[in-house]
Design goal:
It is an enzyme of class 2 (transferase). The structure is a single chain. The protein contains 13 helices and ten strands. By secondary structure, the protein is an alpha/beta fold. The protein folds into two domains: 226 residues, Malonyl-Coenzyme A Acyl Carrier Protein, domain 2 (3-Layer(aba) Sandwich), CATH 3.40.366.10; 62 residues, Malonyl-CoA ACP transacylase, ACP-binding (Alpha-Beta Plaits), CATH 3.30.70. It is globular, with a radius of gyration of 18 Å.
């Protein structure tokens, strides 16, 4: 069986991420030093030292997670542990990390793309009054009906019974109350900066499309899966279109992971903080094998 790499999305970040990798590996030090140079600000310092409020900002955490994921990938490669990796996929922001690992663009190009995506999404958050909520323990059909009734969108299908909704604050609040009234088990408002993966991100989508227009993409060297459909995508033009669409459309993460496993992936290797993706995978199919890597000590376990 072949290994699939899973890259983390926004929300997984935590202060200190990547510090042990930086201290232990010249290759990782070079990545973080290049990131600081490309961005023109100290991503490494914010990743390693915080403060948490700064690291949580969309324009910071997206490039921070991108660099951290590729630092983990670099250590696996450096230690000869990558083995037969044939697939890569990522949750939301992590999809861009997966394309870099698959050779669609190089590190510095990918970092610039991610930084611009994060900047545009934060800008869209600041221009709108959006939020998100988690609906736990309900079917897709029930959540889609709730969204239709209150004019909000299903933003993330993370795992069976773990769905995130997104939209204007007042409409999400009304949907939360209605969900409780309908007997939904758990409907929880989330503390987020905006309505990600919804129509409120349209200003970011439009500007991101213009930004990507002249950047060359290569065909991926690994099988990669897009959040927009849950299916594999290989044409560079289609990849670019998927990244633009992803800004305003639902993240079909459960579908992506199921498709990877159906294509022969196993084990799944999570590259990112907090074992977030491992938890989602186990919620989807308990027997799946998921190995999580976040810091240097995980490589000797």
């Amino acid at each position: 069986m072949a290994t699939a790499l899973l890259f983390a999305g926004q929300g997984a970040q935590k202060v200190g991420m990547g510090k042990t990798l930086y201290d232990a590996s010249d290759v990782v030090r070079a990545l973080y030093d290049e990131a600081d140079r490309v961005l023109g600000w100290e991503l490494s310092k914010l990743s390693f030292e915080g403060p948490a409020e700064a690291l949580t900002e969309t324009k910071v955490c997206q490039p921070a997670l991108f660099v951290h994921g590729l630092a983990l990938h670099a250590v696996l490669k450096e230690q000869g542990k990558l083995g037969e990796v044939t697939m890569a996929l990522g949750l939301s922001l992590g999809e861009l990390t997966a394309y870099c690992a698959a050779g669609v663009y190089d590190f510095s190009t990918g970092l610039r793309i991610v930084a611009e995506r994060g900047r545009l999404m934060q800008e869209a958050c600041e221009q709108t009054t959006g939020t998100m909520a988690a609906v736990i323990g309900e079917s897709r059909e029930a959540v889609n009906a709730l969204c239709a009734d209150f004019d909000v969108q299903a933003a993330n299908f993370n795992a069976p019974g773990q769905i995130i909704i997104s939209g204007e604050q007042a409409k999400v609040a009304a949907a939360v109350e209605a969900g409780k009234a309908r007997g939904m088990k758990r409907v929880l408002p989330l503390n987020v900066a905006g309505a990600y993966h919804s129509r409120l991100m349209e200003p970011a989508r439009e500007k991101f499309a213009a930004y990507l227009a002249d950047i060359p993409f290569a065909a991926p060297q690994l099988k990669v899966f897009t959040n927009t459909t849950g299916a594999a995508v290989s044409d560079p033009v289609a990849i670019k279109e998927a990244l633009v669409k992803q800004v305003v459309s639902s993240v079909l993460w459960e579908d992506c992971v199921r498709a990877a496993v159906a294509a022969g992936a196993g084990p799944l290797w999570e590259l990112g903080p907090g074992k977030v993706l491992a938890g989602m995978a186990k919620r989807t199919e308990r027997e799946w094998v998921v190995n999580s890597f976040a810091e240097f000590e995980d490589f000797s376990a």
